[in-house]
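We now fix the convention by which a protein and its fold are recorded. The integers have meaning only within a learned vocabulary of local backbone shapes. A record is reproduced here so that you can trace the correspondence yourselves:
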Amino acid sequence: MSRMGDVLAGFHAAWEFESDSVLIRYERGIRTPKLFQALGERRIPLEALCGVTLTPGRRGTVVLRAEPRPGADPLMEAAAGQLKEGCDPYRLVLPADKETLAEYYADELRAQLKGDDGEPAERFLVPAPEVPLQFKAYDGKASFDGKTVHFRWFWTGASSAKWKAGDQSFAVSELGGVEWRSPEVFEGHLRLLRRDVGEQPVQADQDPAAVVFGLGYGPVHESLPFAAAVLAAVRERGPVAAVPAAPRRDPADIAERIRHLGELHQAGLVTDEEFSVKKAELLAEL
């Protein structure tokens, strides 16, 4: 491996190479993605990686990317492929004149990896974000102290179903998993998947075990580390539950949600592509 303490600095982050890990320190500048600023720094054990790539980037840059093993990082497991490229914490964007140096480090890392071809990790190998954590969703405030998740509803946004259920507290021992849907897409939400509970409400705004996002609420840099921390705490207690299959919705409900989606589209809050995709998803539930 390269000399311990070697540092490769790029845009928004710097990688420090050590004998058994890579320490990634993220910048806190105005242009740095807020998720990176929230993460601060992360130590990635080499056993948590399964590959390294170096590819041309945009506008005279190259991109060094470490590929995490499935199941090794609670943040990436919670994200479930929903992060935009610019917010990928495993990408290091470098000026093109550092390509030779980046190739050297890429080769050094490849030589240290065990060549498991992406074999899933049996446990999380990358530390979860530190607790306590909290964020404001559209319909309530979520907080997590490491043992219990609390949802406190806002009277301006919470549905009548949630008001009827009252503020909620869920011990980690009650949970089997976490479902995070990015606040950057329509119907973004954070849902807690409960153990030994039958069918949960299909709509997050009707589920007392979920908070819904919305324009400006539950931003990625706050809600995703929260989801990852809860997921890591759940995983420590046993297998993560599969997301339950959604039941069929009432046709009248589908029609109402398509109408609401159309209003958001006309107001410019949903793009043409998002409108088409979500409309198709809703129709498929009939």
Observations:
- The chain has seven helices and 14 strands.
